[in-house]
Amino acid sequence: MPVTDFTVAEKYKYQNGFGSYFETEAVEGALPIGANNPQKPPYGLYNEKLSGTAFTAPRAENQQSWLQRILPASAHAPFEPREANTFDTNPGVHNREKWHQIPNQLRWDPFDMDETVDWVHSLHLVAGAGDPTMKTGLGIFIFAAGKDMDPREAFYSADGDFLIVPQHGVLDIQTELGKILVRPNEICVIPRGIRYRVNLPEGPVRGYILELYQGHFELPGLGPIGSNGLANARDFQAPVAYFDEDTENEYTLLAKFSGHLFAAKQNHTPFDVVAWHGNYYPYKYDLGRFNTIGSISYDHPDPSIFTVLTAQSDHEGTAIADFVIFPPRWLVAEGTFRPPWYHRNTMSEFMGLIGGQYDAKTGGGFQPAGASLHNVMSAHGPDASTHDKASNADLKPAKVGEGSMAFMFESCLMVGVTEWGLKKCAKVQDDYNAESWEPLKPHFKRPSPAQIPHGSKKQ
């Protein structure tokens, strides 16, 4: 599956590459030549710099773009708090919401669709760690919306980068830097601060979001794999410049700032960037293009071989967030229990299912649009029925995951669960352990004649 066979056709053009330096103009000649901030920009536009990293970040890490726009982004009235009593996605920091820190394995039934709300009001924080005001940690959201955003609204998050994983429906996203169509089996990253509006051309949508409060996503190193494999840079797509021209109507700019919602009025469209160049921009990726790597001899490799994007902590090899997928793939390992092994992990693992059946959870409880969380050192692995099937399977080459796509948000942080995620959504499965692992039976057989070390005895 080199590309996904989408049911909804693509309608936009893109620039291809990850971390590439692009330049694009919707009007020829709109980008100044040889300078970023000329005294008189072409066509009477304004110069504006958009910085995703500190000015003094090392050149290899520096992310910024120069925009040529009709009016600067600063041309708006002051922000005012909006829906302060209901929009609270920063638990534990001077807010009423709090984290539930619990060691239990958790699994959620499919989250409900909600056709009454737009994108902004569909965001529900399920779990997370850290604090966006300190630019540390991450938040994990569910979105479920049924309405287009108002055509005279735009939204941005000052808290972090949004990694969006649609499960149902299609997102038609107009950003300042151009338009992106995002369908199930694609992901989209909208970096911190970039303004956008979401339309729903195929009706209601639902899916998952990882908001990264610190750093930015990058491709994982390939090490001995070599120069190609996993997610290849050429398969990421960034928008081309597209702009609206309206300086007569009132628009509302919505900001997610420290987990709260703010609004400001302005008398012009936010989507007036005529041209831009740089390496700080939104992008999308078709998960069907992932080049899966696996064992061709024995044993089950670590799931890190399925990492699409990573955001490293200050300790190399330890991620604040990894985005990992489990796509259709061949299993050929000899003499090997092929599903993921039972394990306890210093990392937290939040899993979701876009479609199909995850091969490590065949008991039926892990469903598309549902989720699971195995926190730091919470033991987990295949359910009892999967273990039984895999332990007795004929170990010939087999294709697993046909028509399926599961994913994982993995983090080195201990992840808390919100009141909405634990109780208000009413989706937590009380019988998760009873259905998955409590039915496991002991198969230990003492050798005959028994060779029992001194001090060992049957209880």
TrEMBL record:
Kindly give the Pfam families that the UniProt entry links to this protein.
HgmA_C, HgmA_N
- InterPro entries named in the record: HgmA_C, HgmA_N, Homogentis_dOase, RmlC-like_jellyroll, RmlC_Cupin_sf
GO MF terms here are: homogentisate 1,2-dioxygenase activity; metal ion binding
Functional pathway: Amino-acid degradation; L-phenylalanine degradation; acetoacetate and fumarate from L-phenylalanine: step 4/6
Signal peptide per UniProt: none
What are the start and end residues of every segment in region (Disordered)? 436-459
Q: Identify the residues that bind homogentisate.
A: Y358, H380
Q: The Homogentisate 1,2-dioxygenase C-terminal domain covers which part of the protein? A: 289-444
* Residues that, per the record, bind Fe cation: H343, E349, H380
Taken from the UniProt entry, a GO cellular component term is: cytoplasm
Alphabetized, the UniProt keywords read: Dioxygenase, Iron, Metal-binding, Oxidoreductase, Phenylalanine catabolism, Tyrosine catabolism
If you read the UniProt record, what top EC class would you report for this enzyme, in one word? oxidoreductase
Superkingdom of origin: Eukaryota
Residues in the active site? H300
Sequence similarity: Belongs to the homogentisate dioxygenase family.
In terms of PANTHER family, this protein maps to: HOMOGENTISATE 1,2-DIOXYGENASE
Instruction: Give the protein's recorded name.
Output: homogentisate 1,2-dioxygenase
Q: What is the lineage of its organism?
A: Eukaryota, Fungi, Dikarya, Ascomycota, Pezizomycotina
